[in-house]
Structure formats: structure tokens, C-alpha cells
Amino acid sequence: MKFITKTVREVEAHEVDFAVAGYFGVPYSVVVALGASNNTQHAVTVEAEELDDWDQGKLEMWQNGGREGHSPQPRVVLSVMARAGVIPAGEYLIDICW
């Protein structure tokens, strides 16, 4: 059997919410962004690259308050944070539990 060993950073949803809101200065909910259910896990690939026009537009709309009750996908906000050197790029597993 052939397999690959990976580093995966496991993080609780409320920690993502706190870090993202602290970095961007805007309330954030990973549960809203993912439409997630309780007791689930969600894998996210975070890349320290520039966003495409679509993701950049959604991010700016959220930052400017244009989409109340909306949070961009965690891949988007965490990639911006990785590009800024705030968090490492890579694989994340977000635990949803309330």
C-alpha cells in the first residue's frame, strides 16, 4: 500500500472566527460561510497566493458590509492571512461543534 504523509492543522471553528475577525476587523462565522452542521469537520486548503477576481470581489463586499449575514469561504480569508504571513499555508481541518 502506498500512502502520503501530510501535515494537517486542526482548528476549532470559534478559533477561526476569532482570528479572522481580529485580522479583518469584521465579524466572521465559519459556520455561516460553510453552511455547516454541528459535529462536522471541513478540510480547507490554504494557499498564500493572490485571490482571483471573483474571490477578491466577494471579500471586498464582505469587508465593506455589503452582504450582511454573509461570510466568505474560509479558503478565501485564510489564504489572505497566509499571504500576509499571519498563518502558514497548507491543509486545515476545521472542527464544527456547538
Map the helices and strands:
Blueprint: E1 8-12, H1 13-24, H2 30-34, E2 40-46, H3 53-63, H4 74-83, E3 90-96
Parallel strand pairs: 1-3
Antiparallel strand pairs: 2-3
For the termini, the CA-CA separation is 38 Å
Number of domains: 1
Rough outline: globular
Q: What is the number of E strands?
A: 3
What is the mean predicted local confidence, pLDDT?
Answer: 93
- Strand order across the biggest sheet? 1-3-2
Largest sheet: 3 strands, mixed
Radius of gyration, in angstroms, nearest whole number: 14 Å
Number of distinct helices: 4
Content of β-strand: 15-25%
Unreliable runs: none
Give me the secondary-structure category: alpha+beta
Helical proportion?
Answer: 25-40%
Helices and strands, in order, run as: EHHEHHE
Structure description:
With 98 residues, the chain is an alpha+beta fold. It has one domain. The protein contains 4 helices and 3 strands; from the N terminus they run βααβααβ. It has helices spanning 13-24, 30-34, 53-63, 74-83; strands at residues 8-12, 40-46, 90-96. It has a 3-stranded mixed β-sheet with strand order 1-3-2. The radius of gyration is 14 Å and the shape is globular. The N and C termini lie far apart (38 Å). The relative contact order is 0.31.
